[in-house]
Design brief:
Helices cover 46% and strands 21% of the residues. It has helices spanning 98-107, 126-140, 145-168, 172-187, 194-200, 205-216, 220-238, 243-249, 255-266, 270-277; strands spanning 2-5, 13-22, 36-43, 46-50, 53-57, 62-65, 71-73, 81-89, 94-96, 114-117, 119-120, 282-283. Strand 4 (46-50) and strand 5 form a beta hairpin. The longest helix is centred in the middle third of the chain and has 24 residues, at 145-168. The protein is globular.
Protein backbone atom coordinates (compact mmCIF):
# COMPACT_ATOMS: atom_id res chain seq x y z
CA UNK A 1 0.00 0.00 0.00
CA UNK A 2 1.13 3.54 -0.76
CA UNK A 3 0.26 7.13 0.10
CA UNK A 4 -0.07 9.12 -3.11
CA UNK A 5 -0.44 12.79 -3.98
CA UNK A 6 -1.17 12.96 -7.73
CA UNK A 7 -0.60 16.71 -8.02
CA UNK A 8 2.03 17.58 -5.45
CA UNK A 9 2.64 21.32 -5.36
CA UNK A 10 5.47 21.36 -2.80
CA UNK A 11 3.22 22.49 0.02
CA UNK A 12 4.32 20.00 2.68
CA UNK A 13 5.10 21.70 5.98
CA UNK A 14 8.09 20.55 8.00
CA UNK A 15 7.25 20.30 11.71
CA UNK A 16 10.07 18.53 13.53
CA UNK A 17 12.63 15.74 13.25
CA UNK A 18 15.20 13.94 15.31
CA UNK A 19 16.97 10.71 16.11
CA UNK A 20 15.69 8.60 18.98
CA UNK A 21 18.40 6.64 20.78
CA UNK A 22 18.47 4.48 23.89
CA UNK A 23 20.57 1.65 25.29
CA UNK A 24 17.84 0.48 27.65
CA UNK A 25 14.88 -1.88 27.01
CA UNK A 26 12.24 0.35 25.45
CA UNK A 27 8.75 0.18 23.95
CA UNK A 28 7.04 2.85 21.85
CA UNK A 29 4.32 4.71 23.78
CA UNK A 30 0.71 4.52 22.63
CA UNK A 31 -0.42 7.73 20.97
CA UNK A 32 -2.28 9.51 18.18
CA UNK A 33 -0.79 12.59 16.49
CA UNK A 34 -2.21 15.10 14.00
CA UNK A 35 0.65 14.97 11.48
CA UNK A 36 2.38 12.48 9.21
CA UNK A 37 5.37 10.69 10.70
CA UNK A 38 8.16 8.84 8.91
CA UNK A 39 10.10 6.35 11.02
CA UNK A 40 13.27 4.61 9.80
CA UNK A 41 15.35 2.45 12.20
CA UNK A 42 19.13 2.67 12.07
CA UNK A 43 19.88 0.02 14.67
CA UNK A 44 17.78 -2.86 16.04
CA UNK A 45 14.16 -3.70 15.18
CA UNK A 46 11.22 -1.48 16.07
CA UNK A 47 8.10 -3.46 16.98
CA UNK A 48 5.09 -1.25 16.46
CA UNK A 49 1.37 -1.54 15.72
CA UNK A 50 -0.21 1.06 13.46
CA UNK A 51 -3.96 1.11 12.89
CA UNK A 52 -4.13 -2.43 14.37
CA UNK A 53 -1.51 -3.75 11.91
CA UNK A 54 1.72 -5.08 13.51
CA UNK A 55 5.12 -4.24 12.01
CA UNK A 56 8.68 -5.31 12.79
CA UNK A 57 10.69 -2.54 11.12
CA UNK A 58 14.32 -3.40 10.48
CA UNK A 59 17.29 -1.11 9.95
CA UNK A 60 16.97 0.79 6.68
CA UNK A 61 13.23 0.21 6.33
CA UNK A 62 10.57 2.92 6.20
CA UNK A 63 7.20 3.24 7.95
CA UNK A 64 4.83 6.14 7.27
CA UNK A 65 2.15 6.81 9.89
CA UNK A 66 -0.73 9.07 8.74
CA UNK A 67 -2.39 11.69 10.96
CA UNK A 68 -4.97 10.64 13.58
CA UNK A 69 -3.85 7.02 13.43
CA UNK A 70 -3.46 5.06 16.70
CA UNK A 71 -0.01 3.49 17.01
CA UNK A 72 1.89 1.84 19.84
CA UNK A 73 4.77 -0.48 20.59
CA UNK A 74 3.90 -4.17 20.76
CA UNK A 75 7.20 -5.55 22.06
CA UNK A 76 10.16 -4.23 24.02
CA UNK A 77 13.26 -3.46 21.97
CA UNK A 78 16.20 -4.97 23.83
CA UNK A 79 19.65 -3.36 23.85
CA UNK A 80 20.47 -0.35 21.70
CA UNK A 81 17.58 1.18 19.76
CA UNK A 82 18.09 4.00 17.28
CA UNK A 83 15.77 5.43 14.65
CA UNK A 84 15.12 8.59 12.65
CA UNK A 85 11.72 10.29 12.96
CA UNK A 86 10.21 13.10 10.93
CA UNK A 87 6.88 14.94 11.33
CA UNK A 88 5.23 16.92 8.54
CA UNK A 89 1.75 18.10 7.52
CA UNK A 90 -0.31 19.85 4.82
CA UNK A 91 -0.08 17.21 2.13
CA UNK A 92 -2.93 15.72 0.16
CA UNK A 93 -2.09 12.02 0.40
CA UNK A 94 -4.56 9.19 -0.24
CA UNK A 95 -4.09 5.45 0.11
CA UNK A 96 -3.58 3.32 -3.03
CA UNK A 97 -2.74 -0.29 -3.80
CA UNK A 98 0.38 -1.16 -5.77
CA UNK A 99 -1.72 -1.96 -8.85
CA UNK A 100 -3.45 1.42 -8.65
CA UNK A 101 -0.12 3.25 -8.31
CA UNK A 102 1.31 1.46 -11.36
CA UNK A 103 -1.79 2.41 -13.35
CA UNK A 104 -1.41 6.04 -12.28
CA UNK A 105 2.23 6.03 -13.36
CA UNK A 106 1.16 4.76 -16.79
CA UNK A 107 -1.42 7.47 -17.42
CA UNK A 108 -0.28 10.52 -15.43
CA UNK A 109 2.76 12.75 -15.37
CA UNK A 110 5.00 11.09 -12.79
CA UNK A 111 6.83 14.39 -12.20
CA UNK A 112 3.72 15.72 -10.44
CA UNK A 113 3.38 12.78 -8.06
CA UNK A 114 4.56 12.03 -4.54
CA UNK A 115 4.48 8.34 -3.58
CA UNK A 116 5.30 7.23 -0.05
CA UNK A 117 5.24 3.65 1.18
CA UNK A 118 3.08 2.64 4.11
CA UNK A 119 5.95 0.28 4.88
CA UNK A 120 8.80 -0.88 2.69
CA UNK A 121 12.12 -2.69 2.81
CA UNK A 122 12.51 -2.58 -0.97
CA UNK A 123 14.28 0.73 -1.41
CA UNK A 124 17.89 1.77 -1.02
CA UNK A 125 17.57 4.05 2.01
CA UNK A 126 21.22 5.21 1.86
CA UNK A 127 20.50 8.57 0.22
CA UNK A 128 17.39 9.06 2.35
CA UNK A 129 19.46 8.81 5.52
CA UNK A 130 22.10 11.21 4.18
CA UNK A 131 19.40 13.72 3.24
CA UNK A 132 17.68 13.20 6.59
CA UNK A 133 20.92 14.01 8.42
CA UNK A 134 21.28 17.16 6.34
CA UNK A 135 17.70 18.16 7.18
CA UNK A 136 18.49 17.63 10.87
CA UNK A 137 21.46 19.97 10.54
CA UNK A 138 19.27 22.66 8.99
CA UNK A 139 16.63 22.17 11.70
CA UNK A 140 19.21 22.47 14.47
CA UNK A 141 20.60 25.61 12.88
CA UNK A 142 17.07 27.08 12.96
CA UNK A 143 16.93 27.79 9.25
CA UNK A 144 13.91 29.59 7.78
CA UNK A 145 10.68 27.57 7.54
CA UNK A 146 10.60 27.95 3.75
CA UNK A 147 14.10 26.48 3.58
CA UNK A 148 13.11 23.49 5.75
CA UNK A 149 9.92 22.95 3.72
CA UNK A 150 11.87 23.01 0.46
CA UNK A 151 14.36 20.46 1.76
CA UNK A 152 11.52 18.30 3.04
CA UNK A 153 10.07 18.31 -0.48
CA UNK A 154 13.45 17.12 -1.81
CA UNK A 155 13.39 14.26 0.68
CA UNK A 156 9.83 13.29 -0.32
CA UNK A 157 10.84 13.36 -3.98
CA UNK A 158 13.81 11.11 -3.15
CA UNK A 159 11.53 8.53 -1.53
CA UNK A 160 9.18 8.81 -4.50
CA UNK A 161 12.03 8.23 -6.93
CA UNK A 162 13.07 5.09 -5.07
CA UNK A 163 9.49 3.78 -5.00
CA UNK A 164 9.04 4.46 -8.72
CA UNK A 165 12.21 2.52 -9.47
CA UNK A 166 10.90 -0.43 -7.50
CA UNK A 167 7.46 -0.34 -9.12
CA UNK A 168 8.74 -0.05 -12.67
CA UNK A 169 11.58 -2.54 -12.30
CA UNK A 170 11.28 -5.89 -14.03
CA UNK A 171 10.45 -8.55 -11.45
CA UNK A 172 11.14 -11.83 -13.25
CA UNK A 173 14.90 -11.75 -12.87
CA UNK A 174 14.66 -9.45 -9.86
CA UNK A 175 13.22 -12.19 -7.67
CA UNK A 176 15.97 -14.55 -8.77
CA UNK A 177 18.61 -11.94 -8.01
CA UNK A 178 17.49 -11.12 -4.47
CA UNK A 179 19.48 -14.01 -2.91
CA UNK A 180 22.54 -12.80 -4.83
CA UNK A 181 22.13 -9.25 -3.56
CA UNK A 182 21.72 -10.58 -0.01
CA UNK A 183 24.86 -12.71 -0.41
CA UNK A 184 26.83 -9.68 -1.64
CA UNK A 185 25.61 -7.60 1.32
CA UNK A 186 26.71 -10.30 3.79
CA UNK A 187 30.14 -10.82 2.18
CA UNK A 188 30.79 -7.24 1.00
CA UNK A 189 33.63 -6.69 3.48
CA UNK A 190 35.47 -9.85 2.44
CA UNK A 191 37.66 -10.37 -0.61
CA UNK A 192 34.59 -10.69 -2.85
CA UNK A 193 34.77 -10.53 -6.65
CA UNK A 194 32.35 -10.97 -9.54
CA UNK A 195 34.13 -14.24 -10.39
CA UNK A 196 33.52 -15.60 -6.89
CA UNK A 197 29.86 -14.55 -6.92
CA UNK A 198 29.24 -16.09 -10.34
CA UNK A 199 30.98 -19.30 -9.29
CA UNK A 200 29.00 -19.51 -6.05
CA UNK A 201 25.64 -19.16 -7.82
CA UNK A 202 26.67 -21.17 -10.93
CA UNK A 203 26.23 -18.30 -13.38
CA UNK A 204 28.28 -17.20 -16.35
CA UNK A 205 30.15 -14.11 -15.19
CA UNK A 206 29.17 -11.90 -18.14
CA UNK A 207 25.53 -12.98 -18.05
CA UNK A 208 25.25 -12.39 -14.29
CA UNK A 209 26.81 -8.94 -14.60
CA UNK A 210 24.38 -7.98 -17.36
CA UNK A 211 21.14 -9.16 -15.76
CA UNK A 212 22.12 -7.82 -12.35
CA UNK A 213 22.57 -4.29 -13.69
CA UNK A 214 19.46 -4.52 -15.89
CA UNK A 215 17.27 -5.46 -12.95
CA UNK A 216 18.82 -3.51 -10.08
CA UNK A 217 20.13 -0.47 -11.92
CA UNK A 218 23.59 -0.93 -10.45
CA UNK A 219 26.60 -3.07 -11.43
CA UNK A 220 27.91 -5.76 -9.09
CA UNK A 221 31.20 -3.96 -8.44
CA UNK A 222 29.34 -0.76 -7.62
CA UNK A 223 26.95 -2.74 -5.41
CA UNK A 224 29.90 -3.98 -3.35
CA UNK A 225 31.19 -0.41 -3.05
CA UNK A 226 27.74 0.81 -2.00
CA UNK A 227 27.50 -1.69 0.84
CA UNK A 228 31.06 -0.92 1.96
CA UNK A 229 30.61 2.86 1.96
CA UNK A 230 27.28 2.58 3.75
CA UNK A 231 29.00 0.78 6.61
CA UNK A 232 31.96 3.17 6.48
CA UNK A 233 29.63 6.14 6.97
CA UNK A 234 28.07 4.46 9.97
CA UNK A 235 31.52 3.89 11.49
CA UNK A 236 32.53 7.48 10.76
CA UNK A 237 29.55 8.94 12.61
CA UNK A 238 29.21 6.43 15.44
CA UNK A 239 32.77 5.43 16.38
CA UNK A 240 36.16 6.98 17.05
CA UNK A 241 37.97 4.58 14.74
CA UNK A 242 40.64 6.14 12.55
CA UNK A 243 40.20 6.40 8.79
CA UNK A 244 42.82 3.66 8.34
CA UNK A 245 40.91 1.36 10.71
CA UNK A 246 37.58 2.06 9.03
CA UNK A 247 39.07 1.39 5.60
CA UNK A 248 40.27 -1.99 6.81
CA UNK A 249 36.92 -2.76 8.49
CA UNK A 250 35.03 -2.33 5.22
CA UNK A 251 37.47 -4.26 3.06
CA UNK A 252 40.14 -1.79 1.91
CA UNK A 253 43.68 -2.33 3.16
CA UNK A 254 44.84 0.67 1.12
CA UNK A 255 43.40 3.58 3.09
CA UNK A 256 44.40 6.14 0.43
CA UNK A 257 42.40 4.23 -2.17
CA UNK A 258 39.47 4.10 0.26
CA UNK A 259 39.63 7.88 0.74
CA UNK A 260 39.71 8.50 -3.03
CA UNK A 261 36.77 6.14 -3.53
CA UNK A 262 34.80 7.72 -0.70
CA UNK A 263 35.23 11.21 -2.13
CA UNK A 264 34.29 10.00 -5.63
CA UNK A 265 30.95 8.59 -4.45
CA UNK A 266 30.10 10.98 -1.60
CA UNK A 267 31.69 14.19 -2.97
CA UNK A 268 33.44 14.84 0.36
CA UNK A 269 36.32 13.18 2.18
CA UNK A 270 35.75 10.74 5.06
CA UNK A 271 37.08 13.35 7.51
CA UNK A 272 34.71 16.01 6.17
CA UNK A 273 31.81 13.55 6.37
CA UNK A 274 32.64 12.78 10.00
CA UNK A 275 32.79 16.47 10.91
CA UNK A 276 29.49 17.15 9.13
CA UNK A 277 27.41 14.33 10.55
CA UNK A 278 29.01 13.31 13.86
CA UNK A 279 26.97 15.63 16.12
CA UNK A 280 23.25 15.18 15.64
CA UNK A 281 20.04 15.96 17.45
CA UNK A 282 19.45 12.88 19.62
CA UNK A 283 16.53 12.43 21.99
CA UNK A 284 15.74 9.91 24.70
CA UNK A 285 12.09 10.65 25.49
Amino acid sequence: MYFVDKKYAEHAQFLSAGTFITNQPWIHTERVIDSYEIISPIESTLYIECNNIPYAIESGEILVIPPHTPHKGIKYCEGRMKFHWLHFSSVNLSIHTETEVIQELNVNNADDMIILPVHTNKIDSRRFHVMFNQLLDLYQEKKRNNYLNAYLSCLLHELTSEIMSVLTRKNVNGNRLQPIQDWIRIHAFDDVTIDKIADHFKYNKSYLSRIYKENTGIGISEQIITFRLKHAKKLLTETDLSIVQIASEVGYEDSKYFMRLFKKYESITPTQYRKTFFNKHYNKK
